[in-house]
Amino acid sequence: MMLFGLIAAVNGPSYHVGTLMHMGPGFMPTALGVVLIVLGILIAGTAAAGAPDTDAEENILPPHPQWFAWLCILAGPFLFIVFGSIGGMAPATFACVFVSALGDRTSSWKSALVLAASVTFFGVVLFHYVLQIPMPVLEWRL
Amino acid sequence: METALTDLWYGFTVAVEPHNLMYCFLGVLIGNMVGVLPGMGPLATISILLPLTFSIKPVGAILMLAGIFYGSQYGGAICSILLNLPCHPPHAVTCLDGFPMTKKGKGGVALGITVIGSFIGASWGITEMMFLAPLLVTVALKFGPAEVCSLMLLGLLAGSTLARGSPLKGVAMTVLGLIFGIVGSDLETGTERLTFGFPELSDGIELVALALGLFGIGEFMNSVNQASPINTTYSNVKLKDMRPSWAELKWAFPAMIRGTIVGSLCSLIPGTGPTIASFAAYATEKKFSKNPERFGFGELRGVASPEASTHSSVQGDFIPTMSMGIPGDAVMALMLGALMIQGIVPGPQLIKEHPDIFWGLIASFWIGNILLVILNVPLIGIWVKMLMIPYRYLYPSALFFVCIGVYAANNDMFQVGEVIAIGILGYALLRLGFQPAPILLGFVLGPRFEENFRRAMLISRGDLLTFIEKPISAFFLVLCVILIGAQFYVRVRGWKRKKAVENVDQPVSAHRLRQAE
Fold first, then answer.
1. pLDDT of B281-312, one tens digit each?
2. Residue A15 forms contact with B (CB below 8 Å)
3. Could you state, in order of their start, the residue ranges of all structural domains in chain B?
4. Which residues contact B124 (CB under 8 A, 6 or more apart)?
5. Is B305 exposed, middle or buried (0-12, 13-18, 19+ CB in 10 A)?
6. Does the pTM exceed 0.80?
7. How crowded is the C-beta side of B61, counted as CA atoms within 13 Å?
8. H/E segment holding residue B238
9. In chain A, what are the domain boundaries?
């Protein structure tokens, strides 16, 4: 819970963007940054005082952390960027779906493969041919 | 009255144009589908489909997105009644009596009543919008920057404190959203703010990226490998089971009416969306009932009232959004964002400048709701089948839609990176008990808030007192104070009672607020 103070502190730099009073561009960020810091202190305060926060989970990690699954989910879009910028839509889609599908405990290599292939097929048809999104299907560019 | 009917007629001519009709149909169909699917909310769906609507004309786009929203409300009920899974928060209450009914073999009747109740609730909500929204506009058109500013403040405060979770955290999230809204070039001077040296950020954070990061990736991370095995023993519902008997209908009807009224009241307070409406309706129904001990064991009225209430407030939510440009919750904020992307300025001038959007939307509500009734009755078997789609197929595909959607918004890979970063942040916040929805609210309203604030300051030559001196603005500010005071009061009382159930508390505070007004 105290972590929130940190979040507010991270937003603190909005401070230095400009302390031009009289409605310069820096006014809003500064004001909001201050408000957020105050709120952060308040929240940390109520948490420390043991206020009955009924729905707050005091632990940032759930009871069963799913590191592998999280990694897979985050790797999906990341690979989409990588393959998307060097290989085009088809490999990007395939990589994204395949890797993220591996994150689920119940799925196997095979099911992920099938899923990735079918999503790639429908994705390319839908987005490239029907909706005409300007992204090459397959190319090699470094 | 007369004008409203002619305008409505005009709206129908817009809404029945073949392509608009098609988008409306697509919207409610997709909405209904994702409503049924556990683990996919309307927020995620709307944000995924948002980029696809860029190429559509504004009217079609907004009809479709709105259709997804209210369509998903119909679908969510199926999930909670048959599976006892509160897929979507507004329907959590429906589980209480809906699932016991299913266990008794009365699941079909519960669904049938839900469809009827929803339709009644929605009809009232739309009628309300037809007459109330133009009325509000005539008032809102007189507002200067100071009034708009105070009104937005009220909207933001209400949206963040009345939603789920701790009000303090809600406000903090709204402020965070406002800060996100600042990122990019300054409106007046062009100074780069909070971009941390990324030239890609100078256009600001992309709305789609923010929404998908928070409600797409964040949610997937939250629910992966967490799904409990779905209990489908009771979910065998046939069409003929759905028709309630005359006696049952007669029994449920007053509850629907009460639910509708509660829902429409809730929708008028900014920030109290369908979730609070449904909880409030259930509480009211229990209080009105002669034998409240039957609630929780398959009381038909316990299903009818919250469902009617949800739908009446879903439609009512559009009133402040469309007439004043103040969204009440995250979904409405997304709608406004969609309009803005289409180059339409939300606010009181919207109805006058774009009557096709406003009246077309209202007409499409009628069409969409009738479509939903038609869709839900015979297709119930298909919806039930859809419940069986395992999550392991669902989320990777959805993830792909997230990627391609964000990319397509600007044809820019950088924004896919934005999504990842925001997703991680969103998940961390979720774990810490912060609701991400107010972030979106703040994000959408932020730039307009700043603009109006600056204008008000310019007019008054930097005198903050202008907000208090103008009577309308002062009135809104007083409401803000009452709101905070009420929250504080409820908190302190809850402190004393220690274990006051929060979900019951909040509708109570909403009621108190109404009385205070």
1. 888 887 777 777 777 777 778 788 888 888 88
2. no
3. 2-468
4. B260, B264, B312, B315
5. buried
6. no
7. 22
8. none
9. 3-48, 67-130
Which residue from A24, A51, A62 is facing B431, i.e. has the nearest CB? Answer: A62
Give the end-to-end CA distance of chain B in Å, rounded to a whole number: 27
Mutation target among A80, A114, A121, A125 for the B interface, most CBs of B within 10 A: A80
- Contact criterion met (CB below 8 Å) for B397 and A115: yes
Q: What is the pLDDT of residue B219?
A: 75
Is A88 within 8 Å of chain B by CB?
A: no
B279, exposed or middle or buried, with CB in 10 Å at 0-12, 13-18, 19+?
Answer: buried
Distance of alpha carbon B120 from alpha carbon B307, whole angstroms: 10
Tokens for B70?
A: 């209210």
CB B61 within 8 A of CB B73: no
How far, in Å, are A120, B158, B194, B332 from residue A42 at the CA level? 49, 19, 25, 29
DSSP conformation class of B190? -
Nearest-CA distance from A81 to chain B in Å?
A: 6
Q: Which positions in chain A touch B52 (Cβ < 8 Å)? A: 131
Q: For residue B55, which residues of chain A lie inside 8 Å, CB to CB?
A: 131
Q: Do B172 and A43 touch (CB under 8 A)?
A: yes
Any chain B CB within 8 A of the CB of A40? yes
